[in-house]
Amino acid sequence: MCLEREDHATGLIRLLSVGLRVLTLLEFGVRQRLARAKAPLAGLYVGNSKRATAHPTAERLLEAFQGLTLTLIRDGRRRRSHLTPLSRVQRRILALLDFPDDIYTQLCPDSHKPP
Questions:
Q1: What DSSP designation does 87 have?
Q2: Which of 27, 35, 51, 67 would give a disulfide with 58, using CB separation of 3.0 to 4.6 Å?
Q3: How many other β-carbons are positioned within 10 Å of the β-carbon of residue 64?
Q4: Pick from 26, 91, 98, 97: which is nearest to 57 by CA?
Q5: 109 vs 18, which has greater pLDDT?
Q6: For residue 75, what is the enclosing H or E element?
Q7: Which pairing describes strands 41-42 and 52-53: parallel, antiparallel, or unpaired?
């Protein structure tokens, strides 16, 4: 990457530093709560769902949320939407982060009511 202006390079470094801090806090918070609960987190490893870890990386935690989809269908004036339900491991990660399940389900309130 080539940045010609020094202020752009400084801004990029600061932005990347903020992202790194967020990921570090995410990892630290989950690991701390797993240590308190004395129960590892299983289901993060593709192809080996029973493998558990007490030290998940931020990358693995975020990968667990891949595949979630919000589908919006417009039919004239009506709009229907559907949100992929959370898996057990995704709900556990949210709980470890002290987030309620409805932080996700509120994105699409009518998802649980099929047409």
A1: P
A2: 27
A3: 21
A4: 26
A5: 18
A6: strand 70-75
A7: antiparallel
